[in-house]
Amino acid sequence: MQLQIENERTFLTYKYKKVQDIDDVILQLLNEADIEGFAESHMNKAKSTVNYDVTGYRKWSELSSDELTPEVMASAMENLYHLLAYLEDSFIDIEYVLLDKEYIYVNPGNGKLVILVVPCQAVVDEEYTLTDCVRQMFEQFTYGEGACAKQLKSCLQQEIHALETLKELADLLRAYDAEPEGPGETVSDEPAVPEETVILETIEEEADQIKTESANIAADAEYMRNQLREDMRRELEKELREQIREETRRELETELRESIRAELEEEQAQAEQEAEDFYNSLTDEQLKETGMEADTPSRVLQENALAKKIYDHVMSDSSAEVSDEQARMTTFYDMFFECYYEDDFGNIVVYSKDKIAEQKQKADEAYTSIKQQLSDNPNLNITFLGHTNNLQYAGSHTMSKDQILESYGQEVLDTLYDMQDGDISQVIETENGYHIFQMTYLTDEKATATNKAELTKEANDAYFNNLLTNWVSKIDKDYTYSKSVNTDVYSMITFN
To answer: Which residues, in sequence order, are CB contacts of 188 under 8 Å at separation 6+?
Structure first.
C-alpha cells in the first residue's frame, strides 16, 4: 500500500499484477451498499491499482493511550464485529480485510472504525489474522487492576475464532465503568471480629471460590465445544463458497464460449461475403493482371481480422495513460517587442544597445497604458495593441508546458502558470526581447483534449511497436521491411 495525495484527497493505493487478481464485483458491492465503515474504493485498470479514499481519517496506530478509553475500545470492537459480520453475511471472505492496525482508520467525526477490503488472493496469502489485529489494537490500551482487566487480558491471550468474541470484549470493556475501585486501607470503628468467625468466613469464601472455579471450568468447556462447532462451520462455509464460485465460474465460461463462438461465426460469414463481393467486382483484366485467385480476398480479410483481434487484445493490457496536466495546452497572447531582425539571408541580427533601450521604453509605455485602461475596463483585451504598436511578432499562441519552456524559458513558464484567464503580466525580459502576456485560457479544453488523444496514441504506438519488434526478432532475426515488401510493385497500388 502506498499513500498518495491528489487534489487535496488522501488515498491508499494497492498495486495488483493482473486485473484478474482483483474481484471488482466485491468492490462494487461494498461501494453500492454505502455502509459506513468500508473505505470507498475505485479501480484504475490502466495503472493496475485500487485506490481507497481515507481523506480526513486517523490511523488507529496514531491514537494515544489517553484516547483509548474503555468506551472507545468497546465501540471499536462493536464496529469491527458489525463490519466483519456484514462481510460474512454477504459471502465475502474476511481474509480480504487488511487486518493490521496500520490499515485501520477512525472517522474523527463519529469515532467509528473504517477498514479496507482488498479482494485479492495476494492479500489472503499475507496471513493477517483477526487475533493479531485485535491484539495490535490493544497495544496502547491501559488495562488497570480490576477483575475486568484480568478477564480482558485472559480473553486476549486466546485465539479469536468467532466474531462473537468481539462482542464479549466490548461487554468486558463496558463493565469497567461499573467495576468498583480496588480496595484501599480504611480505619474501621467496628469492634474486632473473633478469630473463629474469621476462620469460618475464610472457609466459606474458599468454598464459594471452588464453586466459582467449577462453574468457570464448565463455562470454558461449553465455550470450547461452541468454538469447535464454529470452526467446523467456518470450514464448511469456506468449502461451500469455493464450490459455488467454481460452479459460477464454469457457467460463465460456458456462456462466454458460446457467445464468442456465435460472434466469430457471424464475423466469418460477413468476411466471406465481403470477400466474394470484392472478387466478383473485379474485371477479367484486373484478375489477369493481379493473378488473384478466388480465395485470396477471403484469406486476406481473415488475416486482417485476426491481426486486429491480436492488436485489440494486446492493447487492452497497455498502461499508457496521459493525465490532463501532462496534456495541458495553454492559449495566451504575447505582445512582443523584439530585439532582433532577420537579414536578407535569414540570419538573426541583434539590435544595437540604443535600439534595445528604445524597445524597452516602448514596452514600459505600453504596460503603463494598459494599467490606465484597466481601471476603466477590467475585462480589457490587449490583442489589438499589437497592431497599434506595429509589433511584427505579436500574436496568440497555444502551447504545451514543454513548448513554452523551450520557446520562452523557465521564468515565463512560471509566470504564465501563475496567471488566471484574463490576467495581464508585467513586462518580462527574455533573450529575444520584451513581452507583455495576457492569459486567454490557462487550460484550453479543446486543444488539451486533442493533445491528450495524440499523446495517448503515441504512447500506445510505442508500446505496440516495442512488442512487435520483440516478436519479429524471435520469429526472424534477419527480417527487414525492404526485404519482405516489393516496393516497386507496392508503389503501383492506388488507394481510394
So the answer is: none
Count of CB atoms situated within 10 Å of the CB of 56:
12
Mean pLDDT, the chain, rounded, equals 85
Tell me the pLDDT band of 185, cut-offs 50, 70 and 90: very low
- The CA–CA distances, whole Å, from 369 to 360, 372, 378, 381 equal 14, 5, 13, 13
Q: Alpha-carbon distance 331 to 336, whole Å?
A: 15
Q: Is the pLDDT of residue 449 over 70?
A: yes
The cell numbers describing 146, all together, are 480490576
Q: Which three cell numbers stand for residue 313?
A: 487484445
Beta bridge partners of 351: none
The predicted-structure confidence for 5-32, as pLDDT tens digits, reads as follows 888 899 999 988 877 778 888 888 888 8
Domains of the chain in start order, with CATH, are: 2-179 (1.10.510), 267-315 (no CATH), 328-444 (3.10.50.40)
Contact 160, 166 (CB under 8 A): yes
- Distance between the two ends of the chain, CA-based, in angstroms? 54
- Cα–Cα distance between 99 and 132 in angstroms, integer? 8
For residue 221 the three cell numbers come to 468447556
Query: Residue 275: what residue type?
Result: A
CA 240 from centroid of its chain's CA atoms: 32
Q: CA nearest 330: which of 441, 172, 178, 457? A: 441
d(CA 429, CA 378): 25
Judging by beta carbons within 10 Å of its beta carbon (0-12, 13-18, 19+), is residue 64 exposed, middle or buried? exposed
- Whether the pLDDT of residue 408 is over 70: the answer is yes
> In Å, how far are 267, 272, 296, 405, 484 from 290, measured between CA atoms?
27, 20, 11, 54, 19
- The CA angle 400-404-408, to the nearest 5 degrees, is 175
- Whole-prediction pTM: 0.42
pLDDT at 47: 83
- Asked if 160 contacts 130 with a C-beta cutoff of 8 angstroms, the reply is yes
- Range from 106-120, 123-137, 428-442 carrying the lowest mean pLDDT: 123-137
pLDDT band with cut points at 50, 70 and 90 for residue 332:
very high
**13 contacts: CB under 8 Å, gap ≥ 6:** 1, 2, 3, 4, 49, 50, 51, 52
Q: Give the orientation angle of helix 70-89 with respect to helix 130-137, to 10 degrees.
A: 160
- Cell digits of residue 372: 490606465
